[in-house]
């Protein structure tokens, strides 16, 4: 198979802007993003089982995301009519309402802009992508999952808090970190700072690997 090349935003890039028809009306991404974090995720298709569990997961966690200044936005290569029928069906069957906008990307333009269409996996359905975009519009974290494996909501929430904690306290976040755990502080840049660190009560594995509680 010939490999098609679509653009893929990278960590540190500005999130590509677009205007789109969504389940909450027409919107401009940059305006939606202004002043808030955005978790922008794609799903392969409406009326499919794994996607229903995933979008329900996002809907159920709406208070968590709102409490952390984060807006949600979904996307699939389906029509707005399909989206609305699916949102309605899920609400009728389960009582869960997808209140966040879901982009109807029938032209595939936004999916291609965000590297959500990965032709080796599917030529017509978006993979399960997650972009975490900060309030300045910068892409801070990207996850891609294939069509047949659902994402992990606990991990999406964890990495959002990890990014926000790292920004707020200018620290790095170690393996398997959970909120409340110690964080890694930047390595000393001078010999004097090194001496200070050696004399501190920080949890220290070596001079370059020290942890503190927040
Ligand atoms: C699903 O959401 O269940 C699904 C969607 C596309 C391919 C495979 C599974």
Describe what this molecule looks like in 3D.
- Pfam families: 1-cysPrx_C, AhpC-TSA.
- The active site is at residue 51.
- This protein is an alpha+beta fold and 214 residues long.
- The protein has two domains: 19-151, Glutaredoxin (3-Layer(aba) Sandwich); 170-212, 2-Layer Sandwich (Antioxidant, Horf6, Chain A, domain 2), CATH 3.30.1020.10.
- It has helices spanning 29-33, 49-60, 62-67, 80-94, 109-113, 153-169, 191-198, and strands at 19-22, 25-28, 37-42, 70-76, 102-104, 128-133, 139-145, 183-185, 203-206, 209-212.
- β1 and β2 (25-28) form a beta hairpin.
- The relative contact order is 0.15.
- It binds benzoic acid.
The rough form would be described as elongated
Strands of the widest sheet, in order across it, are 5-4-3-6-7
- The share of residues in helices is 25-40%
Distance between the termini: 51 Å
Listed once per kind, the bound small molecules are: benzoic acid
Q: Please give the number of β-strands.
A: 10
Helix and strand content put the structural class at alpha+beta
Q: SSE order, as H and E?
A: EEHEHHEHEHEEHEHEE
Please describe the biggest sheet, giving its number of strands, its sense, and whether it closes into a barrel. 5 strands, mixed
Average pLDDT value? 96
| CATH domain class name of the largest domain | Alpha Beta
Assigned CATH superfamily of the largest domain? Glutaredoxin
CATH architecture of the largest domain: 3-Layer(aba) Sandwich
CATH level 3 topology of the largest domain: Glutaredoxin
């Amino acid at each position: 198979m010939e490999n098609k090349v679509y653009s893929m935003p990278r960590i540190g890039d500005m999130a590509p802007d677009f205007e789109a028809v969504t389940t909450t009306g027409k919107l401009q991404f940059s305006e939606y993003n202004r002043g808030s974090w955005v978790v922008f995720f794609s799903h392969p298709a409406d009326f499919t089982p794994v996607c229903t569990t995933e979008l329900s997961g996002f809907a159920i966690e709406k208070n968590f995301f709102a409490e952390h200044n984060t807006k949600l936005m979904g996307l699939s290569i389906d029509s707005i009519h399909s989206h609305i029928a699916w949102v309605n069906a899920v609400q009728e069957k389960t009582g869960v309402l997808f209140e966040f906008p879901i982009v109807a990307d029938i032209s595939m333009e936004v999916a291609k802009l965000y590297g959500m269409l990965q032709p080796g996996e599917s030529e017509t359905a978006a993979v399960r992508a997650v972009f975490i975009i900060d309030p300045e519009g910068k892409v801070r974290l990207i996850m891609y999952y294939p069509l047949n494996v659902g994402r992990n909501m606990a991990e999406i929430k964890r990495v959002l808090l990890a990014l926000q904690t790292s920004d707020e306290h200018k620290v790095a976040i170690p393996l398997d970190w959970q909120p409340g755990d110690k964080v890694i502080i930047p390595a000393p840049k001078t010999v004097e700072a090194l001496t200070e660190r050696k004399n501190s009560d920080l949890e220290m594995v070596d001079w370059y690997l020290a942890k503190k509680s927040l």
